[in-house]
Design a protein that fits this description.
alpha/beta, Rossmann fold, 44% helix, 15% strand, elongated
Amino acid sequence: MITSEIHDFTRRALAAEIAALQQMDLDPGSLNRAIQFIISCTTQVLVTGIGKSGLVAQRIAATLALAGVRAWYLHPADALHGDLARVREGDVLVVVSRGGESAEVIGVADHCVSLEIPIILITSEPRSTLGRMSTCVLQHPGKEACVLGLIPTSSATAAGVVGDMLVLNVQAVLGTSRQQFVEVHPNGALGKRLNVTVREVMVDGDDVGTITPAQSLFSAMVELARKRGTLAVCCDEKKQRCIGVITAGDITRYVEHRGDGWLAEPVMSVITEDAHTTPSSALARVVLEEMQTAGIMAMPVVDDGQLVGMVHLHDILRAGVR
């Protein structure tokens, strides 16, 4: 295929997948029943499916777990070879099956029916065998983007989106917190963005710009030029207790309408005493949000009343925190 043909074919396939999603109209009653089954489950939610539907089922199980649900993927073939022992009364079964006629999945569903376990079916064929066995059905379009109408494409995308709608509604009802999400993402880029603390991104020691209240604005300007535009104002030369901050912008606004002699004025005439500060143990993403809301570029880091560092907006962003 030449480039133009590939481009045209890709656009048609993409349009077919988008059309499948636009045609989807989940029945509110069925969706509500599915949500209630999951949030009221006191044991475990099992998600099953085979083939490409099985891959979608694995993703749904994983995202349900992120929403705070005790959810697992149950492989239907393994289930029929002993893993049905994992199924307990009180469980909920979520089934992903485009056609609703997969023999292995029907076997799992039949066992769940005998235990009076609710079955939530995600399918394009609600009148199928699995559809008749299910407690509630979430239907999606079954037409594929594949030119042969065979390779699971649009249907798999739609089934995944139905799963997303189920998970997001469950998350909203359960009120899953950001902290719960953080606790299960300790590693990787996402974990780093969520878990990095101020201590890991702040500057300390001689890299922290400090000045005492009695020093002149001239001294402050010199120090600001050397130390990234924000100074912690400390009560004494030991640089222990922070009583405020001073920035280049503070000085600019202060001297705009003043006459000669301002360079000798003390820092105390410009200091912001009710400045934002943060402990070093704070999450950098929380401090970033505070900085962006307050419109500030840097914040003194204070532990137990003592200045221990300075955290800068750009250092937080450089660490990958968003």
